[in-house]
């Protein structure tokens, strides 16, 4: 099927893009890598009157630690995240996710900003950003504002960006000593979307107690889920206690709300969440102990 007709603009600056969007009102869509939007256009599930292509705007593609954050430009390709040494060495949960998003063709074009802005509960980056306590920078006619990842995913395909805002940067709290993370995903075949996925981020104190815990879940609810009860319960506990890890995983699964579909029943997916959280937590703790 062919998309319905639309106008196309390719601004050379952020301010030009924002003016274009603000002047046009509703009916405008930003396009980045097109890996989610183009299929929607072709199925006519989206019929914008104007596409604003942000690929020629400078300053939206970077990965760097500065100040209190790891800053990832919204236009950074998933493949660039995958190849980034700083992410592989210091933010391994992001690296894990970048390796399992689609196939190399999708990763070469798809952007991190598009992955979270799309609001698809089956996308992998949202859960990681929830576990890491990230925040997102939205830029619009009134300037910049930051939105916590925990407040960003409102409903399926609905995020907290206003229609005239562009996501410009993702900010992840800068890694502290003895912090580790992991993202695991069960897929039916290579390059598939997740049956379920789990991101865990943990900071251990010198006595191996969990000082900070973050959990994000993929494909088991209307949005990516931050498992807040499980996070709170695990804080102050010691990972060595097998029973504690089992309870932490059980609580995480309890916070999921998967639907039964071709990938499995709701009960099966909850069981998968429990197993993935337990394994991701164990791996995150190993990485935290090895991190300086
Ligand atoms: C074959 C295939 C397999 C895939 N497998 C996976 C997978 O396993 N895991 C996974 O997570 N994803 C998967 N995807 C989905 C896709 O890779 C991601 O959603 C991708 O990262 C989207 O980024 P994009 O830059 O292509 O976004 P686009 O398609 O350009 O845009 C997606 C949405 O986000 C909005 N948007 C994009 N950038 C911005 C911005 N900076 N500010 C405001 N709004 C913005 C657009 O308006 C649109 O609504 C797959 C896609 C394909 C085609």
Structure description:
The protein has 292 residues and is of the alpha+beta class. It has 3 domains: 7-52, 2-Layer Sandwich (Uridine Diphospho-n-acetylenolpyruvylglucosamine Reductase, domain 2); 63-173, Uridine Diphospho-n-acetylenolpyruvylglucosamine Reductase, domain 3; 179-290, Enolase-like, domain 1 (2-Layer Sandwich), CATH 3.30.390.50. Helix content is 36%, strand content 25%. It has 12 helices and 14 strands. It has helices at 14-24, 37-42, 78-83, 85-90, 92-99, 104-109, 112-117, 125-131, 149-152, 228-234, 242-254, 266-290, and strands at 7-9, 28-31, 50-53, 63-66, 69-73, 135-140, 143-148, 153-155, 158-159, 166-173, 179-186, 196-204, 210-218, 225-226. The strands form 4 sheets. It has a 5-stranded antiparallel β-sheet. Strands 11-12-13-14 form a 4-stranded antiparallel β-sheet. A 3-stranded parallel β-sheet has the order 1-3-2, covered by helices on one side. Helix 2 (37-42) links the parallel strand 2 and strand 3. The protein is globular. It starts with 6 loop residues before the first strand and ends with a helix. The model has no long low-confidence stretch (mean pLDDT 96). The structure holds flavin-adenine dinucleotide. The site of flavin-adenine dinucleotide (FAD) has 29 residues, from strand 2, helix 6, helix 7 and strand 10.
